[in-house]
Amino acid sequence: MLDFDLTEEQKALQKMARDFAEKEIRPIAEKLDKSQNLLQDFPWEMIKKADALGLRTIALPEEYGGPGYDLRTWVVLIDELSYPDVACAKILTQCWKGARRLAEQGTKAQKDRYLTAFRDDPTYLLGGARTEPGSGSDNQLPYEAPNAGVMLTAQRQGDHYVLNGRKHFISNSPVAKMLVVTARVDKTVGGVAGSRSFIVPTDTPGFKVASVHDKTGFRMYLQGELDFDNVKVPVENLLEKEGGRGGAEGVASKVELAAHAMTLARAALDAAIKYANERIQGGQAIIHHQAVAMDIAEMYQVLHAGRTLLWRLAWAGDTGQADPALMHSTKVFCTEAALKICLTAMEIFGGSGVMRELPMQKYVRDAMVFQHMDGTQQINRIKVGRILATRFNQEGRLSR
Q1: Contact, 200 vs 237, CB < 8 A?
Q2: Where in the sequence is the domain holding 363, given as residue range(s)?
Q3: Is residue 151 classed as helix, strand or coil in its secondary structure?
Q4: pLDDT band at residue 246 using 50, 70 and 90 as cut-offs
Q5: Most buried of 98, 161, 245, 258, CB within 10 angstroms?
Q6: Is the pTM value of this prediction over 0.85?
């Protein structure tokens, strides 16, 4: 049964995450957002302090020294960590996804080597490298043709694979110590059948960060363009078990992203309510003006619809009942809700909404970035439509 009540452990974690976010993230967030040298200003001290509290390694299973928290606990933590600044929080939670994936898909030897290294180094960050300059959303909705999908090649040469090609928009890559890289092992078949994933330490010869993307929002959540020039990867670094975007890997990714979106939306709504209570027009706070009150009510309703959808998806993932249609729907609804709420909140601020010294313009910039993370909205909607097309029973009703 779906339960919205937090356990005592979750309540304690919630307070710990809130205290950390307010003490360590909020004071640096504005400066980081305005950085003109993203690599130089990367918040390593914040990362180390987060690690000391276990906030970098929460997805590690118990046998590797971690707590192995479930997805509902992820949501509780993100709801606090992301509130002052979604970008700083996303640096940490990208590692949660990477560690969870390796724990579920890696061999024992791979886990013993890389999860242990990740656990023991406070500056060990993780990322996944799938997107390429000519291959983005068609990895999410693959066109099974030899000339589509991932083009970075992986050729077997004895006891190694040799990787050549380029990736871009790769999260954490400019600062990560290990990436899971999707590469094409067979170009005679489609992208899904012909691709495999490899564990690639970023100090491997031939690997280079070609550039760091300077984005409108999520600025300190570093993403880069990567060159692979005869990068030799041992055969034992091949992930033998592929999770697939509709499986455990996919549900964790959708929960993590939607949780950040809903926390950003909550922060924007709180800022709008605070401003509307303080701004006086016509002798009263504007929150009492009907138009403003209606906007705030709608933002509140959309926020809680999204949070309920998110909590249901997290519960489904924890209980082994993840529904791909629900996964993609949650991503679309929550990220679009975040943008809608942030834009409406900006309207309540009026002309002040675009001023750099106030938070609203940053909320909008960050919300814009969500729209193309983890597949475009259109791609996710197409996938939902295809899934539902197969679910009608003989009575003409959805089967689940």
Answers
A1: yes
A2: 248-389
A3: coil
A4: very low
A5: 258
A6: yes
